[in-house]
What we know:
Blueprint: H1 4-10, H2 12-23, E1 30-34, H3 41-53, H4 67-74, E2 80-83, H5 92-103, E3 112-116, H6 124-135, E4 141-147, H7 155-158, E5 162-165, H8 171-180, H9 185-191, H10 198-205, H11 208-226, H12 231-242, H13 246-267, H14 280-287, H15 292-310, H16 315-327
Parallel strand pairs: 1-4, 1-5, 2-3, 3-4
Helix pairs in contact: 1-2, 3-4, 5-6, 8-9, 11-12, 11-13, 12-16, 13-14, 13-15, 15-16
Enzyme class: transferase
EC number: 2.7.7.7
Keywords: DNA replication, DNA-directed DNA polymerase, Nucleotidyltransferase, Transferase
Amino acid sequence: MQTWEQLQETQPNVVRMLKNSILKNRIAHAYLFEGGRGTGKKAVGIQLAKSFFCINKTGAEPCNSCIECKRIESGNHPDVHFLSPDGLSLKKEQIKDLQREFSKKSVESKGKIYLIEHADKMTNQAANSLLKFLEEPDGQTIAILLTEQVQQILPTILSRCQILNFQPLTADLLLQKLLQQGVPAHLGKIVASLTNNINEALAIISDDWFAQARNIVIQLNEVLLKRGHHALLFLHENWLSHFKEKEQLSVGLDLLLLWFKDLLYIQIGEENSLIYIDQKELLEAQSMRFSQKKIVDDLTVILEAKKRLNANVNPSLLMEQLILKLQEG
C-alpha cells in the first residue's frame, strides 16, 4: 500500500494536481494517464479510487484500513472495475459490457470508477463505443485511461479527458528505490543507468545472466589492461558464448559503454559519478594508460558498434573489430 506522499516522490506534478482536485471536490469525470511502463500510472489510479471511496480519509489521504480501501487494494470492490486487453486489443464487446455497467446504479456506494489499461489498444469500434460515455458523463462515474502510447488514442477521446503526464524515474530516484528494496549498491547503480522502470530494473537484477554479463565486461577490461594479446581469445571463449543474441550483445555494449564512461569520470575527477563503484582500483589503473582523447574516441567506437549492430552486421566480426580498435594507441 502506498500513500499520496510516497507517490508524490516519483510523480510530484501529477499527485499535486489530483490531491488538489480531491480536496476541492473537483475530480474530473475522465482522466488519461500517459507515460512509460513503471511510472506508477496504475498505482495512482488505485490511490485515486481509494480517496474517492474511503470513509475515513484525512484530507486527500485514504486510510488504507477501512473496508472500502481494503476491497480496492485487493481488486474486489463492486464499484471499481478494471479493464485490460482481451488478447492483443480492447474489443468493442468489452466496452459494451462496460457501458452496461455504466447504466447501472452503483452497488452500494456513491459512484463507480473504471480503470482501463492499455487504452491505446482499443480497436476503432471499441474507441468509438467509449466516446458515448465520455460525451454524456454520469456525474457519479469516473473513467481512468492508462496508456504508454498517447499518440495512438483518438483525438476525440483525448479532447474529453484530463491528460496527466507521468515522467520517467530519474536514475538517482530509481537507485534510491532499489536500495530500499535491499538491492546491493553496485548492482543498483548500474541497473539504474540502463532503465528508468522499477519493475524492469528488479527483473534485470534477479537475472543470473545479467550478473554474469557484468562480470564478463569487467574481465574483458582486465584482459585489455594486463594481457592485451589474449583479448581476442577471451572474446571468442567468453564474450560471444554469453552474449549470443542480438539483444544480449546490445546489453553487453551498453555495459562496456558505462565502463568507458567511468574511465572518463576518473580522468576528470568525477569519482562520485562512477557506475562500477566496486571496481575503482581497476578503473584507476586502466585510466592511467589512456588520454582523455583516447577514452572519448573509444566511447565513440562503442557507440558506432551499437549502431552497426542494429544494421545486422555479423556479431563476431563486429566485436573483433571493436576489440582491435580499443587496443589501438
